[in-house]
Amino acid sequence: MIDLDGVTCRYGRGGGDGDADAAVATVAVDDVSLSVPDGEFLVVAGANGSGKTTLVRTFNGLVEPDAGTVTVNGTPVDEDLVAARSAVGMVFQDPRDQLVAATVGADVAFGPENLGLSHDEIDRRVADALAAVNMAGRERERIDSLSGGERERVAIAGALAMDPDHLVLDEPFTGLDEPARRSVVDRLRALHRGGTGVVVVTHDLRDVAALADRIVGLADGRVAVDAPPDEAVSALPGLDVRVPESGKFASPAE
Ligand SMILES: Nc1ncnc2c1ncn2[C@@H]1O[C@H](COP(=O)(O)OP(=O)(O)OP(=O)(O)O)[C@@H](O)[C@H]1O
Ligand SMILES: [Mg+2]
């Protein structure tokens, strides 16, 4: 469970020369209170610059709020960063910011290796995480030989290998073609069904709206919509969010 209470994040405040700073400070996240229960599939939507990335980065301490509190499983994130990072896995928008090793197996093993686990346990976690993204047995392949969709799935596997309660993905579909998008969506659906909480940040709801339990729409750093998909859809176009063409959300494909 992730809990935000009155979270506010600013950029450009202080550290410069005097009162000019106050004028240029951006309030990226403005007094947001939000709970994300275990197992929930939450979509965070909103236009460019509405504060989506900043908001979700508070979930595991990558961004520290200027005001308000974030707790994960009841513990304030700033009191136990390690616990927050193991409970909330983050997949960055650009896999190049995430993939650190030369091969698939080494990359997915990177996180678990830092947990001091046995080799057998690390190998098992890597194998399970790759299976969960439909890349079973591909440990020895080089990252630079993979397609964009495969890299995205390896980045997801790297987060999964830490066995998080919640998996947060920031714009996971950027730059992916339709088959690759579908493949990632299918994996997210399967993870959610398996009990992992999934948080997807996007300004394009076409692929994920049907999977969501809830959609939170941000506008200028504030929560403008917080509703199940079928209720949220009428409010979202006003937030400059791309919605499915029918204007309705189909049930998830079985
Ligand atoms: N490192 C930074 N320094 C200064 N301002 C920033 C920084 N990161 C974000 N901002 C500003 O904070 C606001 C919210 O940005 P954020 O990246 O959280 O929004 P977003 O909804 O994720 O946008 P996008 O759709 O472009 O990814 C924007 O006005 C942005 O310009
Ligand atoms: Mg962003």
UniProtKB/TrEMBL annotation:
Annotated Gene3D superfamilies: P-loop containing nucleotide triphosphate hydrolases
Domain ABC transporter: 2-245
Keyword hit for Transport: yes
Main location: membrane
Cellular component GO terms, alphabetical: ATP-binding cassette (ABC) transporter complex
Classification via InterPro entries: AAA+_ATPase, ABC_transporter-like_ATP-bd, ABC_transpr_CbiO/EcfA_su, ECF_ABC_transporter_ATP-bd, P-loop_NTPase
Topological category with respect to the lipid bilayer: Peripheral membrane protein
Pfam name, any one: ABC_tran
PROSITE patterns linked to this entry: ABC_TRANSPORTER_2
Nucleotide-binding recorded as keyword: yes
Keywords for this protein: ATP-binding, Cell membrane, Membrane, Nucleotide-binding, Translocase, Transport
A molecular-function term among this protein's GO annotations: ATPase-coupled transmembrane transporter activity
Localization in the cell: Cell membrane
Function field: Probably part of an ABC transporter complex. Responsible for energy coupling to the transport system.
Family: Belongs to the ABC transporter superfamily.
Protein name: ABC transporter
